[in-house]
Amino acid sequence: KTMQSINGTLAKVKLSACENYEFNSDQYWVCVLRHTGRTLFHPVGTCKMGPSIDLSTVVDPRLRVKNIKRLRVVDASIMPMLPSAHINAAAIMIGEKGAAMIEKDHTTNEVFSDTCRV
Fold this sequence. Notes:
This is Glucose-methanol-choline oxidoreductase C-terminal domain-containing protein. The protein is mainly α. Helices cover 34% and strands 0% of the residues. The mean pLDDT is 87.
């Protein structure tokens, strides 16, 4: 009602990725959201950690990316869900633990002999 009282109109956002959809259709807005939607929060859980036999995981428990040698993910993306508190402490812990794993693997040469298997 507020927008109607001031004769407000919906501005048409020109987004080339969505030009095949009719403006203001559900498909149009889904497309716009997929291409422009962002979060102001800390994304987590984008690189699932778990055992090698779990095909939905990205990294193993030693933070190694599956099927890619000498690459690890050492950040909040391995967290399965947001904690109830700010993620800063958890992210620092992940970094510290990841650094210790990398150091251990390099000093024992595990990084060259122990590969992540699927």
